[in-house]
Amino acid sequence: MRPVLTSSFSKWWFKGALSRFLIVLCAITTVTLCLAAKDFVKAEAKPAQTYPAHDDHPNEKVAIAADPYDTAEKAKIFSVKFHDHGFLPIFFVVTNNGNQPISIANLQVTLTTADRDKLTPTVPEDIYRRITNPHPNTNPIPLPIPQKKVKGTISEKEKAEVESSQFVAKAVEPHATQSGFFFFDVEGITAPLAGAHIYVSGVNDAKGGELMYFELPLDKYLNPPQKMN
User: Fold this and answer.
1) What is the pLDDT of residues 175-216, one digit of tens each?
2) Do the beta carbons of residue 116 and residue 53 sit within 8 Å?
3) Helical ranges in 37-113 per DSSP H
4) Residue-level pLDDT at 183
5) How far apart are the C-alpha atoms of 56 and 43, rounded to whole Å?
6) Calpha distance 173→176 (Å, rounded)
7) CA 88 – CA 68 distance, rounded (Å)
8) Which contacts qualify for 55-62: CB closer than 8 Å, 24 or more apart?
9) Gap between the Cα atoms of 117 and 157, Å rounded
């Protein structure tokens, strides 16, 4: 004759099974949400003077660098296919090696191509407009990435990625570095980097005086100096 489960034992068994089920369900839900809500993680900035394309003002103790994200491997940091839409992301780095803060609230950045085209960073609204209203790109950036047009509205995740990746710093504290991305509209430009320069002005010292402009030759990025063994 099989023993009959008592009422208290039945309740104990049911509660235990329910607890184990809830734990497993929570674990599955947590993993699913983490995968679905994977946030953009900006590249970690190194001191500006360590990048090939940089301009260092040792007397003013400020260095600025530009690191183009023009390859398929580097572009993996983004979920938005900026290159498909004719945009060139450039990681911008400002390092303050001095003992006083500097202001970059009035920063002005211009990418001048070899053909003397003058490009300024694209504002997020224009990026959204291009992404949501794609059109044939007659001269796409030559990247080994499948070129396809994505139609429809921009998702909240894509919008958050554009906004969180932007260079938005207004000042750089002593012995600190600020960084972020500028996006340049290079649609129709076959080789936007070769022979190009980035000019930067609007950097002010702690007394409000403007520093000499910075010039970043992008050929140094394309052909970095070889390290001596």
Assistant:
1) 999 999 999 999 999 999 999 999 999 999 999 999 999 999
2) no
3) 72-75
4) 98
5) 21
6) 5
7) 7
8) 55/200, 55/214, 55/215, 55/216, 57/211, 57/212, 57/214, 60/98, 60/205, 60/211, 60/212, 61/96, 61/97, 61/98, 62/94, 62/95, 62/96, 62/97, 62/98, 62/102, 62/172, 62/203, 62/211
9) 32
Matching residue, tokens 């997020």: 124
Q: Are residues 102 and 25 in the same domain?
A: no
**Token output for 206:** 């702690």
Q: Is residue 229 part of a domain?
A: no
228: number of Cβ within 10 Å:
4
- Residue 210 is given by DSSP the state B
Residue 186 lies in a domain: yes
Could you tell me where the DSSP H helices lie in the chain? 7-36, 72-75, 124-132, 156-165, 219-222
- Tokens 């992008």 belong to residue: 218
Q: State the amino acid at position 45 in one-letter form.
A: A
Domain span at 202:
48-222
Burial 126-149 (b: 16+ CB within 10 A, else e): ebbebbeeeeebeebbebeeeeee
Global pTM value: 0.76
